[in-house]
Amino acid sequence: MKYKPKNRDGSLGLAPMIDIVFLLLIFFLVSSTLQGEEAIYNITVPDSSIGQTADGEQINIFLSEDNKIYYQEVEYNPGQLELLFRDIGEREDKSVKIYADRKTDFENLVALIEELKQNNFEQISFSLRERR
């Protein structure tokens, strides 16, 4: 009796390949962190172990590491604060949230806060990352 080898066509099954792709997709979705708007402007907010989450609509202002100010994806220099407030316009809600990079100059942050106060913005808050 002669041994006859089975015919192998050399093709891979499609189902195991799809399983692997979905497992990789799930792995990367679970392992990645979503940072929201902070990632757009490349801002790293400082860590804090205290504070609370604010709800409601706010005006989000971003202050980057190189002291550029961003509002609705428009870049402003520290000397262009009047232009920034003109773009914000008159709003009933005077609530502002500042996303300041941890390497931002303190002087520019204080200048921004002073301008906000002069323009009758009453509720000013800062974005911090929860310390773990």
UniProtKB/TrEMBL annotation:
Keyword tags: Cell membrane, Membrane, Protein transport, Transmembrane, Transmembrane helix, Transport
Pfam families: ExbD (PF02472)
Gene Ontology process terms (BP): protein transport
Record localization: Cell membrane
GO CC terms of this entry: plasma membrane
InterPro entries, per the entry: ExbD
Transmembrane helix as UniProt keyword: yes
Topology with respect to the bilayer: Single-pass membrane protein; Single-pass type II membrane protein
Oxidoreductase keyword on record: no
Coiled-coil region list: none
GO molecular function: transmembrane transporter activity
Family the UniProt entry places it in: Belongs to the ExbD/TolR family.
PANTHER family: BIOPOLYMER TRANSPORT PROTEIN EXBD-RELATED, EXBD MEMBRANE COMPONENT OF PMF-DRIVEN MACROMOLECULE IMPORT SYSTEM
Protein name: Biopolymer transport protein ExbD/TolR
Record organism: Halanaerobium hydrogeniformans
